Amino acid sequence: MKLNQVEKRLLSDNSSGSSELAELIIQYTLSYLKQNKFDKGAISHVRDLNVVLSQKFAPMAAVINGITRTEDIINNYYYIPSNIGREIGHYLQYLKNLDGQVIKNCGRLFRRKVTIATYSNSGLIKKVLSHYKKSIRSVYVSEARPAGEGKLMAQFLAKTGINVKYSVDMLFFELMRETDCLIIGADMVGKNAFINKIGSAALLKQAAAEGVKTLVLFESTKIISDNHLQNFRGEYNNIAVWTGKKIRRIEPINRCFEIIPTRLVDYFVSDLGYDTAMSLGQHMCPPIIPQHI
Question: pLDDT, tens digit, for every residue of 148-166?
């Protein structure tokens, strides 16, 4: 299939958080279908694109669930094209409402001034921190190699008026002791484990060693079964760690995601509540999406 420039950018996006990327994909789908008046050729193109996107972003539950939902809408209203746009719009609003509920459920963390550490470039965490910026002294952010998306997080927070301390990844471990809590996102969440950017588990262990509270923020669209987690394999991109000519006896190794035990985390905060690893299991059946969405 022939891709336009916007679609190529979506497929090459290695820095956006999973929920952020899901919204970008769904918004693009809606605008593309509207622009082409929901004709059969446009719908066929979207379906082909969704296959490619699903393969590229397989470790991101929010993306996969978002694509699945838009596919369901297209199938349900294939012969009533005007309703496709309306229902996709409803679904986008539903996702924004989930984020709003997570922000509300994070309120107890910001009852006093706090210093935060965060890792990678979670779109949900950006929304939470910018909402509570008056209760934040500063946020520690590392580069998040190899993609370096931590720089995007730092730039975003600085633009909202939050003081940012930015470091290389290895220094981040030492700086952890200067913070009150470590907040990270998740790409998939199961009962006993979750998936996030490689390096998250090591940071959680360091935070525990320093007596720093740890939190994982996620939307319920990221809930999956533990069986799915067991079949997960980290995405590899060796070019990101070794560029240029190959050298004999040097084998570049890279993994973008890792499986992390929930027991390493103090609290999980979602649109469904504020949970410990022990109570998280009560939410492991994904919430029912209202029929009109």
Answer: 999 999 999 999 999 999 9
